[in-house]
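Subject: Protein record for review, amino acid sequence with backbone structure tokens
Why sent: The fold of this protein is of interest and is recorded here as tokens.
Notation: Tokens come from a learned vocabulary of local backbone shapes, not from coordinates.
Attached in line: The record itself begins immediately under this heading.
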Amino acid sequence: MNDILRIKGQFGHNTRKSQVGMPSLPANGTVKSEQIGQMILQLQYLQVYWSDKKINDNALISIEYNRVVAKSNRVRRLIASNTTKTRIVGAKFNKGESYIHHIITYYAPYDSIQESIYELITVKSIVDKQFNGSVNKSIVDKINKKEIRLNSNAISRTSFVNLIVDSFYVEKIFVPTPESTEADTQIVTLYDTKEDYRKWLTVLGIEIELKNIIDKNTFILDKAKYEILVNKVPYLVSMAVKDFAKYEPIESNELPSHEVFTLPPPTNEPIIGVIDSFFDDSVYFSEWVDVCDELKGIPVDNKDREHGTAVDSIIVDGHRINPTFNDGCGNFRVRHFSLITSNGYNSIEIMKKVRKIVTQNRDIKVWNFSIGSALEINENFISYQAFELDKLQNEFDDIIFVVAGTNDNSHSMKKRIGAPADSINSIVVNSIKRGGEPAAYSRKGPVLSFYNKPDIAYYGGDKNEPIRVCTRNGAISTCGTSFAAPFIARKIAFLIHRVGLSREIAKALIVDSAIGWKPNRINNIHSYIGMGVVPIRIEDILHSNDDEIRFVITSEASTYDNYLYRIPVPISNNMQPYIAKATLCYFSECERNQGVDYTSTELDIHFGRITNKGIKTINDNCQNTPDSRIIEASARNYYRKWDNIKVICERQKDRGKAKSLYENGFWGISIKKTERNSKHSPNLVKFGLVITLKNIYGENLINEFIQKCAINELLVSSINVEERVRINTKIEEDIELED
């Protein structure tokens, strides 16, 4: 087995070259006069509808596109969309059996509706009279080149072309309406129009207590108040998601146990933060748990202590309670925050307390969150709870949440995961049986029809093969994602605290270890187990096979292109006999009010051999190249555009072929950073990258690789997990198990 290597090198940085081009239609694209006529009618309806409902002389307008549309193909001329007067305030998907359409909601000047109607009437007239009712790509290109001149001075050439292209991508234009919901209590977000909605709500007869106000656009409303809102101003409702407050602790199926565990007092073991129900200090490991009661004064019974205590037992001593799952990580201390009872609680209060807890306990880097909603997530909106976790992980660049994938106690295998398991920045863990199949209580992803959740899976027990936990009753048998997540929290804490890795690298290693050499899984992520099952032993995460060279790199994306071009992959017989895999992780800024366009930052990975034209990527990634013609849906499906976890992998073949040499055998990495907003973010985005090179002939050339890295001014160090495990074993030598 080879140690994993840490490589440090100086990344270069380049800004993006201007790529302003003339708008055009796709190769077979055609716009007919009838399409333009339909848009005129739809805009005329909007003009009448908004005539007496204007919001500071503005209107909310939803445009459904005929595909998942890239930023470059969204409307350019319609409703003043190319000016600062118009803003995008929401995005969702309309899903059919054979299609997915983007719906983008704009906050635009009311006068822009009339302007668009006038211009479209002019465009339709030109299309009818000059082009016989139809315009194709060839005509548009000739107009752009001034080879065809318009027979009208009523509109400019540029405006005409922009409106033709807009018309091609637009399916329909309409007034936004809320999705129907049935829950008694809603977390309601109104479109961001810069208005003080509390005054509006008061006029409507809707009074909101201060504790139910999340921000200027988001509130908790009961069913009666929500009905008033949607009956009087339905167009204001951006999203309404079911409240999280219906949480119920997972029931345990207790089995008798005669084993009694003991632990010596803790010393300097790493601390994992646990946010859960209450803790029972009568258990044998109570000295290892520092309890912070955030719900003082609330009556608590023994049932309220079981779940949190059971979760803590896995984190503190799970490897001994469950010898089959001895991970080699040792014991951990817990700082336990009691936030939940079986009677439920106001979700706003919960998340406000979570923010306060994280802010005041900055020494804790790994947080376990094994509580979740019995209700399914919305397919178009991230839950408020998940958004808060994502914000925290973006604001604090050294913390990570491990979140349980939530359970389906009906065992239907049909329910979507519940909040906050839709958190994009967190590691979301589902549960499997010992054979690797999803547990019977599993719930499924994805999130927002795109983001892969759960991320990974681990052993959380099932009916006939339970996990053991410890509560006031001693060792009991149970199952649930609540008990799979703490095992992953242990591994993450080991990687961060014992090995000294960044959270980005720790997350990337966990994902990388789960997916293995299975490139078919990358674009066909399992709805229940995500990228795959994480190995039990920490050595299997921090080691590679003798025929593999695995190394980690962490850096920051500060500009558009961030590159490292001198990775000296070993040469054998004047060839490079390797297949490669790379796993990229970063923590994105997120905007909940953007709906399905949730993550704000995209890091696109290009990795492969250096040629005289650039990087020959191992996955044929043609994004962000001068001649790229890839459509948005393909960029998302094949290259995970806008996902903050990316894995690219070459396929193992029985008769592998060594790679030809280019440019002295160097390989390169390019991380290209883009933003959804027009202005590029000035913030640095940290990323972690795990790269594995597998020799197809079984050769072990890691020493040659280390030597060549040193020659090329790359700093290399080994991660020796045996030494780390030896230290942990020494600490545990005095721990006894009494029969």
